[in-house]
Queue: 2 jobs
Job 1
Amino acid sequence: MLALYEYTAGRLAEMLRTKETSSVEITRSVLERIDAVEEKLRCYVTVSPEEAVKMAEEADRRLAAGDGKPLTGIPIAIKDNMCWKGHRTTCASKILHNFHPPYDSTVVRLLKEEGIVILGSANMDEFAMGSSTETSHWGPTRNPWNVEMIPGGSSGGSAAAVAAGEAVVTLGSDTGGSIRLPAAFCGVSGMKPTYGAVSRYGLVAYASSLDQIGPIARDARDIALLLNIICGHDPKDSTSVPRDYPNFSNSLDKPVKGMKIGLPREFFDKLEDPDVNRVMKDARQIYRSLGVSFVDLSLPHLDYALAAYYIIAPSEASSNLARYDGVKYGFRAENFDGMIDMYCRSRAEGFGAEVKRRIMLGTYALSSGYYDAYYLKAAKIRTLITNDFRKAFEECDAILCPTAPSPPFRIGEKMDDPIQMYLTDVFTIPVNMAGLPGMAIPGGFSSDGLPIGIQLVASHFEEARLVQLSSAFQKETDHHLKRPSL
Ligand code: GLN
């Protein structure tokens, strides 16, 4: 028999409705699991057990009064870059190590209104810059499938927590792959919604034109349940798009027969890893057996996506991170000689090496005389990539491609080689550049037993199609049901 922490949110919600269990029981089960394995994995920056139990008691009262919503009483963890009033929100950086936001991000407000139990905040790469969760000021998170391996990043804590049963579901953020990559590496499901579908209000900014919040969970059904809560217009975020967002759960059982999936040759030409190749082949086979047809496509500007991203994202970061000066909040150096020296020392001591690299790259790319050659050119490439995808979606309903070029790698393996680390995101970054929704789901395992994810991409605001395709896949496969033996 499964312990409560092992169930999906959808199943637990049913059990709450039939009174087979209570939110307090579920929450205690997850908290015990955290006690048992957190020391090995370090998924969390902060856990608030007493408060979680209080929220669970409140959820049980709501459920008893018949006032429950679909996910009332389900325990969640949020990434440590989402403002949570009164709780430390550090972005895994020393410069924010003591920052307690005076307000809730919109997603946290929505979770509270739903009556979800917030367990704590999950570990991440510092300011979400990274692909491995190794740049965290609090130390790395480990992959539950093999603790010598990285969990992917930057939402590594969020993905590892779901895989290990340290949370039922979580939220992550994705600027260049940070939900999909760790979901793939930890054997769970994760979706980056369309840019503008989920409010960024209260999400600590990395690269504002790319950042997007999304769900990480054990299956497509839970992803849909979370999308139902977090998608929606928010007047507090000027890039949030007002439209009618559907009930995503309605797409879970729609047949995929007759759908057309595009296979962009630029994605597959790059694939060298035999395990990833095998998983992609198997995935095609599954979809073919479901009555899906395939069309070969070309996205001619894809090869420039990574380079353009590493101009745009650091440029925006260099501007966004200018606010950390030791004056208004966060870390301030202890010894300094005057105001300018205080700024310099606070930033020198407060930021980690990767964040400094991005600030320098971005400042350079935006500087007078270089702006046209770098930033402006990258912005033009971004438009070309968006147009490539637009054309592709005239021929297909969705795109299938790998999430990462390889299975998870060893802790430390790429830390001294930033370019190798950046290349991990070669399949996820183009999706952010075009603002599209993308989803990673478990597709199989490497010969060493490490999870490998497949990626589905749809046109703007077609998240429901991704739910439909991933749900159909999960009805035919059991990769998403496998658990690491910790
Ligand atoms: N690895 C990419 C970066 O470091 C993407 C990170 C993210 O999506 N937040 O920029």
Job 2
Amino acid sequence: MCGIVGYVGEKSAQDVVIEGLRRLEYRGYDSAGIALVHEGSILSDKKAGKLANLEKDLAEHPLEASTTGIGHTRWATHGAPTDRNAHPHLGQHDRVAVIHNGIIENFAALRGELEDAGVEMRSDTDTEVVSHLLEAEVEAGADLTVAMQRVCQRLAGAFTLVAVDAADPARVVAARRNSPLVVGLGEGENFLGSDVAAFIEHTREALELGQDQVVTITREGVEVTGFDGSPAEGKHYHVDWDLSAAEKDGHDWFMRKEIFEQPHAVADALLGRHSPGGRLQLDEMRLSEQELRDVDKIILVACGTAFYAGLVAKYAIEHWTRIPCEVELAHEFRYRDPILTQDTLVVAISQSGETADTLMAIRHARAQGSRVLAICNTNGSTIPRESDAVIYTHAGPEIGVASTKGFSTQLVASYLLGLYLAQVRGTMYGDEIRGVVHELEQMPGHIQGILDRKDAIYALAADLADARSVLFLGRHAGFPVALEGALKLKELAYIHAEGFAAGELKHGPIALIEEGLPVFCVVPPQGRDQLHDKMISAIQEIRARGARTLLLAEEDDPAVAPYADSVIYLPRVPVLLQPLVAVVPLQLFACELASRMGHDVDQPRNLAKSVTVE
Ligand code: F6R
């Protein structure tokens, strides 16, 4: 959700903040705004729409130079995405400016209280109450840090807040509860950001903050406290990727770049995960072998694309370990009173590590005594921090809103988890595990092979540019791939798309088939006779009813050609690993189709990366 930047130092705060917002715009892009402190006043500008609108306005109406500032890109929750509702919000005497990510749940009561005291509201947002409350505190004599501590104690909900005070030009103060915020540590300058992309071109040294903490940055240093003012400490870490990872590198979209990064990302996700003797080792696996042997049920919780990775994980983990696995949407899990014991292992899958639904799910699980393992891409984010163990996916920053390398590396981490459990519990022999690891190590090459044949997929996208509805069918591990293919198309091309388990077709969805309807079918590898043959039967059934069949099938599969309008050939891989290769053409297809339709592939309408509100 919203992108947040704060800066204090010696550079132009406007330049630093706008550059940071550009790198964070994938988090939200309904409106953008900036506030600078200059000679005892707040200078502010904000505009509905993308960051470019704000930049244009700043070019036409330049603000005075300043070295202290804050900036925001918004994903609207309370109040329409208008100029008036864009952040920053100022107190009634324009002394304090505030930006916010999250939802202030008790804002209506606070707003009523402020209105009764004669404050005139200038927006429809929940955020504005905070600017008035902070301003009242500083006007009564508190410094901005103390003001923030006091105000936070009155707020309910999830929030990252960042504020400046016109009368205190060398200080930026921020607070967080259930919402992301990191500090960038510079020399003679310091930074705040929703994530490290906000300041990666200036520093790779960062400070992770805990829950319910207030942080004050000045040129000279950083001070962290609890909401009650008690001293606290952030956790220092070094960011292991650099500016080039946050650039498009010659591609038209971040998403396309990230699709093409998958051979590397998958290789990185595997790197260093087994010893020379062939035993798997997961450094961040903080659960003991005994704890893992005691596990009697696994529940995988996640949302969206990460949930589909969880569906694949279930097939693999159950097969390799014989531990019963359930997969649940995190938001459903949290509110249905699931049966959890201390021997239940809850696996949270999240690229961002900040998805509020998944975070609430793991908190619930831990409160019931279950152990939680996170599969996550973002170092220092909340979900791994609040988990008992973590497997980092090492995909590097994912900036395109639609997840691609995030998904493929979540699959790799899930496979590693399954194999590791099998090793600990003795449900597979060492040579069997090494065999699967060896197959995994071939995946970067296989994915590269598919990427090298991108033109055929782009041609298909050109051909289907007028499609109004597309279906995706899969079976077994191919079913989540079908769901993911459909999601990619929905979110990027705004086309009606549905994924179905092929076996379910005759129970209803086959009624949707009509002349010319494009249907992608993920054909299981030939070695799985029954699955493969049943899929071929399903394809015949839809073709007989006029569907245009677009098959993803193994390269030497002779059974598919008679029933295919088009075939995208996949390399020969084990059935459980097929999602890693089968998803790639579907990502390329959605990216290309959306791009041809003139859509903003990296910032699809109504979406935001990292959904930090429930
Ligand atoms: C779709 C997509 C989303 C995310 C979902 C979970 O392309 O990106 O469906 O997968 O919002 O996000 P994370 O993995 O950050 O928890």
